[in-house]
Amino acid sequence: MRQSADHTPNLRFVAYVAGVLCLIATGVTLAKDFVKPAAQPAKTYALHDQHNDEGVGAAVDPYDSAEKTQIFNVKWNEEGFLPIFLVVTNDGDQPISLGRMQAQLITAHREKLSAASNDELYRRLSHISAGGPKYPIPFPRTKVKGAVKQKALDEMDAAQFSAKAVEPHSTQSGFVFFDVSGIPSPLDGGRFYLTGLRDAKGNELLYFEIPFQK
């Protein structure tokens, strides 16, 4: 009597392929979502400027190392951007307006860099030149040529410093991004400036100046 063929090797191969496909599918499904770091009071950060007379403090935490940038899905450093975590704490009894706030990085070589706008971030991620097609705000969420993936758009929205005010005895935080492409060691000898904060009466607060340690 002829014995039935041994299909064990084939079954093992099928099981192996199925396992690989399962792992790939799981990896796609479980791709991490961006989670903004929890902010502490500004004065607890190594790089901060505290205005005790105004009851307001500002702090920065540069995300300039491979370990720290792992929280992002977008490879901001490869796109030429330096993410800096900005924290503003209001220890006073009146709200502080951030509607006209401006963040600026001045390098040791006197290069003045303003925080990138949504439009600048979008264009860089979509690799569209400044002379390319103009997209309206908000940016198109459909799959057009050069469009940024939804996950990157969601990360942009979640990461950026977007607060318009800091309520009494509270802290606001988020990332500001600086285009440092072509600038070696932009933080060495550089300084961070924060201007445009206003008190409840509309008076502008003294600017915040935070030098970066070499």
In short:
Helix content is 19%, strand content 24%. The chain is built from three helices and ten strands; from the N terminus they run αββββββααββββ.
Q: What's the helix count?
A: 3
Uncertain segments are 23-30, 132-137, 139-145
User: What's the alpha carbon Rg, rounded to whole Å?
Assistant: 24 Å
Broad CATH class = Mainly Beta
| Through-space gap between termini | 84 Å
- What is the succession of H and E elements? HEEEEEEHHEEEE
Instruction: Estimate the strand proportion.
Output: 15-25%
Return the domain count.
Answer: 1
Find the count of extended strands (DSSP E, 2+ residues). 10
CATH architectural designation? Sandwich
Q: Let me know the largest β-sheet.
A: 4 strands, antiparallel
Question: Structural class given helices, strands, pairing?
Answer: alpha+beta
Shape label:
globular
Here the CATH topology equals Immunoglobulin-like
Oligomeric nature of the chains: single chain
What average pLDDT do the residues reach?
Answer: 84
Specify the helix fraction band.
Answer: 10-25%
Major β-sheet strand ordering: 1-2-3-8
Structural overview:
With 214 residues, the chain is α+β, with helices and mostly antiparallel strands. It has one domain (35-211): Immunoglobulin-like (Sandwich), CATH 2.60.40.1150. The protein contains 3 helices and 10 strands. The protein has helices at 8-29, 118-126, 150-159, and strands spanning 48-51, 56-62, 81-90, 96-97, 102-106, 112-114, 165-166, 170-179, 191-195, 208-211. The longest helix has 22 residues, at 8-29. The protein is globular, with a radius of gyration of 24 Å. The N and C termini lie far apart (84 Å). Mean pLDDT is 84; it is low at 23-30, 132-137 and 139-145.
